[in-house]
Amino acid sequence: MALPTLTGVGRLTADPELRFVQSGKAVADVRLAFNSRRLNPQTNQWEDGDVMYVRGSAWERLAENIVETLAKGMEVNVTGELRTESWEKDGQKHERTALMIRSIGPSLAYATAVVTKAATGTNGAQTGSQPRGQAQQSRPAQTHQAQQPPADDPWAVDNAKGYSDEPPF
Hints:
This protein is mainly beta. About 10% of the residues lie in helices and about 45% in strands. The chain has 2 helices and 6 strands. It has helices spanning about 60-70, 135-140; strands spanning about 5-10, 15-20, 25-40, 45-60, 75-90, 90-105. It is globular and about 55 Å long. The termini are far apart.
């Protein structure tokens, strides 16, 4: 039987944390809060309803992308499988709901984002994890300048203005 899938809008309650398991694979731990917010018609004010806190985890390249992109307080769209984590500590059994994250990204309802395609290997798969400490150093610094369109793009080039609002036909 398949695990139940959760797709929803949540908020990060802490910065994502990146760690590496013994095999060298990256794992991101993400703490999420989902709440039911509704408008009270009598007061015309927004009220928070019940809150569900979930710890999520993501692996490999997704984990690295999460830590590089997301931060505490961000609203995110997330999809993954719900599961139950169980452990024993000091003779006490503990359980909590956890989310195996398959997809996550910033919600554009109240923010903007700049998307950069991740590098891929020659077989089309995403590149593997890097050893701890090298992940941030090997990535190029991101700038928020507008990229110049390629000179051979007839949709984007106008020699007088540098761009074109008109189709090239």
